[in-house]
Specification:
Layout lengths: L5 E7 L6 H12 L5 E7 L6 H8 L6 E5 L6 H11 L4 E4 L11 H10 L4 E8 L6 H18 L11 E4 H5 L11 H7 L3 E7 L13 H20 L11
Helix pairs in contact: 5-8
Length: about 240
């Protein structure tokens, strides 16, 4: 397989009803558009997710499958996928199939038309297909985050993202960091752009998060990111001849 120009990283935990359809959609969206690879990172699923992905490798040369030795969460799965990626740019999708792979060419087009100092193109779910309580909780979380971090991003919870691999790996790592990528990229001196994307109902299985549990973790993480921003210091450098 040729050197990929895009790596699509997809974390998955107990998503046996979604992963094969999602893989097929990614392949359909990207074949003939850009040389790519798809990296699924299984976070110790207890169903048939890993076996299905292993079986799909024979018919999908772009597919790579990573498996955690112990359950470590979505941020760790994304980071391990990015570390293993062979392309200079990485796209992410959630493993539940609610993100639409057909939006990936749109993100690539936005990158190609964008400025060189934009290192993150973040999906913006303009028509969310979630329960009312989940949409309400997300609305308030986004409002609080935006006010405190001033990241000018309407939706940081969308799993659809496109970013430069090197810029991502230069960010401080912590659990749940994937929810704060715009603020962290801006802290590093880069620009970010939000791109409207499609959002779909979950096809199978159930959400791995509750509103209450997410809120408890989110408050602590939000304060931590705000602290990181206040402690940021950067400067350009030059090498003497």
């Amino acid at each position: 397989m040729s050197q990929p120009q895009l790596s699509v990283v997809i974390p998955a935990f107990n998503e046996e009803g979604n992963v094969l359809a999602l893989l097929g959609e990614v392949v359909a969206a990207l074949r003939g558009v850009v040389p790519f690879e798809v990296i699924f990172v299984d976070d110790c699923s207890r169903d048939g997710t890993l076996a299905l992905l292993q079986g799909a490798r024979a018919g999908t040369p772009e597919l790579r499958v990573l498996a955690h030795h112990q359950q470590s969460g979505q941020s760790t799965a994304i980071r391990n996928g990015v570390k293993a990626a062979r392309a200079p740019w990485v796209a992410t999708l959630d493993g539940d199939g609610q993100n639409d792979p057909a939006d990936l060419p749109k993100l690539l087009a936005a990158r190609d038309a964008g400025q060189a100092d934009v290192k993150l193109y973040a999906g913006w779910r303009v028509n969310r297909q979630d329960t009312g309580s989940k949409k309400w909780a997300s609305k308030w979380a986004n409002a609080i985050r935006s006010r405190l971090l001033r990241d000018a991003t309407p939706d940081t919870g969308c799993g659809t993202k496109l970013f430069e691999r090197a810029a991502f790996l230069d960010l401080p790592y912590f659990d749940h960091m994937h929810r704060y990528l715009p603020a962290l990229m801006q802290r590093a001196g880069w620009k970010t752009v939000s791109v409207p994307v499609n959002h779909r109902p979950r096809g199978a299985g159930s959400s791995k998060y509750t509103n209450f549990g997410r809120a408890l973790v989110g408050i602590r993480d939000l304060m931590g990111v705000a602290w990181l921003i206040t402690r940021s210091k950067r400067t350009d450098i030059r090498e003497l001849e």
